[in-house]
Amino acid sequence: MALSLFTRRPAVPPDTTTWIPAGTTVVQRYRGAAGERDGAIVLVYSADGDQGSASFAAACLGCTYRVTRNRHDSAWLSENQAADFANTHAASCRALDRGIPAPPSDDQAVKIVRDRLYGLRPYGTTSPEYVFLRAFHADRVALQRPAGFINEMMLQLTKSEPDFLTAQPHSSGHGLQFLVQPHPLKD
């Protein structure tokens, strides 16, 4: 048996206690309690934004829990608010640590972006809705893509579906603002 100086080590899968989804900055982690076993990790994170002020989200890696806004006044979360939500969820969630979610294929990622935009589409009005990157905060753990990917997908949608999403020059003169068009009014 020949020995090699360049023996490869087996790839070590990333650990949920240190994993950071692409396009996010994880600022805190909480571990749930699931009996004698380790519960799921709940992340508190911020993501690439386009509005100047940071907003935060919390997401559980064991269940489907995601929160991006305060339930009482629909305001975006501060770091302390997101941490409070994450800590409360970690204390009550009984999900086990499922590991790091597999990154979606590009087709699946496009569907996540499109589904979020469709959810923002206004009803019963003729006014479009401005789309900001923080609208995708809840999707960042599943999406695992940076802001550039989201912007590129939205730009492609403006070309392929202009009745769904449009773009206009940003009022600051830098970049584009995206607007999701309202559902067509029924006669």
Description:
It is a single chain. The protein has 187 residues and is α+β, with helices and mostly antiparallel strands. 25% of the residues lie in helices and 22% in strands. It has four helices and seven strands; from the N terminus they run E-E-E-E-H-H-E-H-H-E-E. It has helices at residues 79-92, 106-120, 140-143, 147-160, and strands at residues 24-34, 37-47, 56-60, 66-67, 129-131, 165-169, 176-180.
What's the total count of β strands?
7
Poorly predicted ranges: none
The pLDDT mean sits at: 87
Structural class: alpha+beta
Distance between the termini: 80 Å
Structural shape: elongated
Strand order of the largest sheet: 1-2-3-4
Indicate the radius of gyration in whole angstroms. Answer: 20 Å
Query: How is the main sheet built?
Result: 4 strands, antiparallel
